[in-house]
Amino acid sequence: MAGLEVVVRPFVFPDIRPRAKQSLPPQDDPEKGFAKIDGQPAQQVSLSHSMSVSSSHNRPVEVSRRVDEARVYQEEDDGTLNRDNFVDMKVANKITMREEGDRVPTAKEAWLEGLPRPTGLNFEKPNFYKRVEETNNVEVKRRDIIEKNPDAPGAGI
């Protein structure tokens, strides 16, 4: 009866069921860690409109200043003055500036070059400031002292 067992017993082929996935480490990739950027090839872009902007700025130079000399005494918290302790200072109330490009030729330079000396042109730009005021601890010694800058362009005018 051994022959009947072979006929009745079902036989299961191994390829009917899918194999279980094997967990293997990934294979080494020589390009791993490098970014690869793909895209369309470069194309020329032509614009129908263009614009350019430029600017320049001259640095003004101080030509002269008008100052007041003042003496400031030490004032205590209770309002008394210590006239032995003081500071003398010059306080500017007008500073005249000139741009480097605005140099006016002197009379001698104009005569040598045959140029007419400009008249009525104001190339110097004055800036006015508040004058120092006398208070109980501030004493004005002298007013309206004119100090000129000998290194200013056109200082010989």
The percent range for strand residues is 25-35%
* Helix count from the secondary structure assignment: 2
- Flag low-confidence runs: none
Mean pLDDT: 77
- Assembly state (oligomeric): single chain
Helix content: under 10%
Q: End-to-end span in angstroms?
A: 140 Å
Number of strands: 4
Query: What is the chain-wise order of helices and strands?
Result: HEEHEE
Biggest beta sheet attributes: 4 strands, antiparallel
Specify the overall morphology: elongated
List the strand order in the largest sheet.
Answer: 3-2-1-4
Structural class from helices and strands? mainly beta
Determine Rg (CA atoms, Å).
47 Å
Compact description:
With 157 residues, the chain is mainly beta. Helix content is 9%, strand content 31%.
Task: Give a description of the structure.
This protein is mainly beta. The protein has a domain of 88 residues. The chain is 9% helix and 31% strand. It contains 2 helices and 4 strands. It has a 4-stranded antiparallel beta sheet, with no helix packed on it. The longest helix is centred in the first third of the chain and has 7 residues.
